[in-house]
Each structure stands twice: as C-alpha cells, then as structure tokens.
C-alpha cells in the first residue's frame, strides 16, 4: 500500500535514525499520520506540512522523528503547547508505522525528546495524556518520572482508533506531569474535593501550601471563559480565567451552545490559585460536572479538571497500569456516581 499517491512503499527492516524534525520531514509526517489514522486524527496540523513547519519554527511544537537512511519518516513523537500556560509542553501525537513496530522506536524517540530536546529548549513542565484502551503509555510515562494526576473520561471517540481496532467505545486518557524546574505555590482546595486532591498531590512530587476555598464565597465582577471545540472528538475544553457574578448564566449559555454543536464531553479548567474555586466547583457540579483531577501548573499555577459526559461513561474499558492510576480512577468514578445521585430528577449529566 502506498502511503500517499505517487510515494513508493517504505521497505521494512531498514536501519533507522532518531533526530529532531527537519522541514523536509513534513511530508513524511503527514503520510505517516494518514497511514496510521487515516484522516481521523483530530489535530490537523500534522496533515499540513506548511503549517507544521511554521509551528515548529515558532517553538509551539518540538518534533522528533524516526527516519530511514533515505529520509523516509517511519515514526514521530511531538511536544506541543496545549495549556493556557505555554511553558507546558504535552508529549503525544506520536506513532510508528506498523512495519517498523516491535523495534522499540517509540521508546527511543521519547528518550531522545526527554534527554536531549527538552534540556536544549529549557522546557519548564512536561505533560502527557496516556490513552486507557491499553497501559503501554502509562507505563512509559511513569518510567520517565511523570506523575499521574487526572483522568479525562471518554475524551476520544473509538473512531480515532479505527485503523488499530483497539477500542469499541469512547477512550479515556490519564494525564501526567513532570516538572523540569521548581514552582512551589499555594493552592485553594474546595472542601468537597480536599481529601481527594490531597491524595493526588501526595503522589505528584510537588510542594504546595494548602488553603481552604470557601464554597459560599460571593462572586463579583465578570466571568471570563475561553472554550475550544474539537469537532471530530465531539469534545470541548473550557478554561475559566476569571470567576464572576455572572458565572451561572455564562455557563448555562455556553453549555446550551455546545449541546447544539453535538458536543458530548465538556472539560472545565478552574484555577486552584483562586480562593473562588470552591464556589465555582459548586456551580459546575450542579450542572453535572464531576472530578477529573489536578492539572499541575496549568495556568502557570495549578488547575482543577472537572468534566461532564453525556450518558454513561465507558468505565468498563478503562485500563490502568499502577496503583496511582487506579486510585485516580476510583476517585473520579465515585464522584461521578455521587453527582448522578445529586442531580435533580430528569436532569442528565
């Protein structure tokens, strides 16, 4: 099978070198994504060589590739900005062509990224999302010093893994972080989640001063929300930059609009550095949101992940690797169950 029209099939068994992305690799990256994901990968920059070259040039993406002596791209791993704080780089958007698997290329590319590219670029914080339809990536991240701190339920549709046939329902991801520079600060713990968040922080390796957030705090001023919709995934992410007196009205308006767009998963990012986070949690929870976990340094200071899923999450297919992952899964699922019991009759989460 040709990867792209007019491009010869890449011969398996060749020697492979690992290195930083070069502009001449862009076409090969696009061909590799099509070979593995078809047109289904939700982040389209990897299909568009000019845009990928520009993003790498701006420092928004750090890209490592595996290539043959003829320059054919057979694997790729990326570090890219995905949080409100652009000092966080997410590791992901990776693949290895099927005929080059079982050779440890994914590990070699990740090692190159973390051991060579990250120190060169002075990255403050690394972030990863390990899919939970298998445990391989969770294991790899833990081995490289990443701490799991949040579970993103039903984030990706099964269609994203259609070529691999590795999922029959929506797929959760486990979020993990590694700090490359210290960033101690105070966080406000909503009383409802104080015990759960303390447990997550215990395994995070991060020093924080804990304060109590007042769930009955008076909200003043205007709310500032920034939403991003991922059409293919039917998912939306909402960053709450300012919590104001109009939070309930703004949130209801936003959720109605997202429902009209066919969104079935909504994530909310709240600032744990804000004393108003306790009140904000109650507003979101009354609308079916439940715990996701901690997002380290997400706004340069820590964030709280809440999430809302249409219908029953695909709990049964979530695979977790370690006791810490199991602990987070149990905390998240328990809170979802509690939210279901607290919703008014006839309401849906």
Describe the structure.
It is a single chain. The protein has two domains: about 110 residues, Aminopeptidase (3-Layer(aba) Sandwich), CATH 3.40.630.30; about 200 residues, Aminopeptidase. The longest helix is centred in the C-terminal third of the chain and has 20 residues. With about 350 residues, the protein is an alpha+beta fold. The strands form three sheets. It has a seven-stranded mixed sheet with strand order 1-2-3-4-5-7-6, with helices on both faces. It has a five-stranded mixed sheet with strand order 10-11-12-14-13. The chain has a two-stranded parallel ribbon with strand order 8-9. The protein is built from eight helices and 14 strands.
Biggest sheet layout: 7 strands, mixed
Question: Looking across the biggest beta sheet, what order are the strands in?
Answer: 1-2-3-4-5-7-6
Helix content: 25-40%
| Rg calc | 21 Å
E-strand count: 14
Keyword list:
single chain; 349 residues; alpha+beta; Aminopeptidase; 2 domains; 7-stranded mixed beta sheet; 8 helices
Fold blueprint:
Elements lengths: L16 E4 L5 H12 L11 H10 L2 E7 L5 E9 L6 E9 L8 H17 L3 E7 L4 H8 L3 E10 L14 E9 L5 E5 L4 H9 L5 E5 L11 E7 L4 E8 L4 H14 L4 E7 L5 H9 L4 E6 L7 E7 L13 H20 L7
